[in-house]
Amino acid sequence: GIANQQNLKMFRLTALAFALFAASASAIEETRATDAAFDYDHPELWKDMDGSECARSKNSPIALSTMDCTHYANYELHLGDCTIADMNFSVTNNGVKLDYGARTCSTPHFDIPKDSITSGTKYHFNTHIHLSSEHTIDGGFSAAELHMVHVNKEFLAGAPGARAAVLGTMVMPNSPVDNPVFERYLKKWQLAREAVDCGCDGETFTVSPDVAEIDVYENMRGKDFYHYDGGLTTPPCTEVVWWNFNTEPLLISIRQFQVMTDIILNTRVLDKGGNCNLITVASEGGSTSRPTQPLNGRTIDKICAMSR
Questions:
Q1: pLDDT value at residue 34
Q2: I need a labelling partner for 288 at 20 to 30 A (CA). Which of 27, 57, 59, 261 fits?
C-alpha cells in the first residue's frame, strides 16, 4: 500500500515531472485533430455515445485502499516466444501503444489464481499508457498508469464469452536511473512517432536494431494485486474486464517520463484537409485518464504472492 507520507512525496514528484513539461501541455491549446470520437475534457459525455456502457454499475477505474490480503497465490506469468521485433509500436490519439499485429508468435499469457469464475488463460493483446494515473490508492495519484490488456480465446475468436483481464500498475518517475525494459519500449515509440509526425521539421531518430526477447512481466512478478470486476476505461467502457492492479509502481526516470509525455502530447499528424494537427485527445491539463467511478457494492480482493 501507499502511506500518506508517500502520497505527499508522490504528488511532489509528479508535480515536478509535469512542470518540466508545462510548455508541452500548453501546446494542447493549439488546433487539435478533429476526428476523435471522445476526449478527456468532457468524460461525463461518454455515456451519450452510441453503444456506450459508461454509465453502468461496474465501470473503471476505481479508488483503491490499502487492505489486508484476501487470497494467497502466485500469478502464473508465461512469456511465450515473442521478441520485441514481433511487437507493433504506435502513437494514437489516446497515447502510446504496443500490440502484436498478425500474432505470428506465441504471445505472453497469464492465469488469475482465484476461482473458476476468473479461470482461463488470458493472452497479451496490447499495452498502453495513460498520463496521470486512473486508479488511485489511498487517494493518491501517480504520474501515469500502464495497462497490459489480455484477452481470452473467445475474444480472439469473436465468440460468445469474450473477456479481458488487465494487469495494471502506476508509473512513477522517481528512479535515479533509466528503467532498462521501459527504455526499449520508449525507443520503439520514438521511431513510431517519427514515422507519422508531420511536425518533426526533418529531425530523425535512429536506434540499433532490437530483436531480443523481452520480459514484459518484469514489474509484475512476485507482486501483490488488487483484483475486481470492472470495465474498459475508455469508451464504450465495456464491462468485461477482470482488473489486477499492482500494489507497487513501475519506476522510471524523469527523463524517460519527459520523452514519453512529449510523444503523447506533441505528436502531430495530417488531417483529411492536409493540416498538421496534434493527434492527442488529452485534456487541457495534459491528462489521458478517466476519473474514478463508483464501486457500487463490488468486492475488491487483494491477491498476495506466496513467494517473492
A1: 32
A2: 57
Q: What is the pTM of this model?
A: 0.86
Residues 6+ apart with CB under 8 A from 64: 135, 136, 137, 138, 226, 245, 300
b/e per residue 102-131 (b: at least 16 CB within 10 A): eeeeebbbbbbbbeeebeeebbbbbbbbbb
Length of the chain: 308
Q: Amino acid letter at 82?
A: C
CA-nearest of 265, 290, 184, 278 to 17 is 265
Give the span between the Cα atoms of 242 and 238, in whole angstroms.
12
175 Cβ partners below 8 Å, 6+ apart?
A: 251, 252, 253
Q: Hey, how many other C-beta atoms are within 10 angstroms of the C-beta on 101? A: 8
67: how many CB neighbours lie within 10 A of its CB? 12
Closest CA to 76 of 109, 116, 125: 109
Shortest CA distance to 133 belongs to which of 290, 243, 293?
Answer: 290
**Three-state DSSP class for residue 200:** coil
Cell match 478527456: residue? 40
Distance, in Å, from the CA atom of 232 to the CA atom of 256, rounded to the nearest integer, reads 26
3-state SS, residue 302: strand
What is d(CA 101, CA 75) in angstroms, rounded to the nearest whole number? 26
DSSP letter string, 259-294: HHHHHHHH-EEE-TTS-EEE-----TTS---PPP--
Spatial separation of the C-alpha atoms in residues 269 and 90, rounded to whole Å: 13
DSSP labels for 215-263? -TTTTTTT--EEEEEE--SSTT--S-EEEEEESSPEEEEHHHHHHHHHH
Q: Which of 62, 77, 152, 154 is nearest to 113 (CA)?
A: 77
Look at residue 127 and give its three-state secondary structure. Answer: strand
List helix spans (H) across 46-150.
none
pLDDT, average across residues 185-205: 83
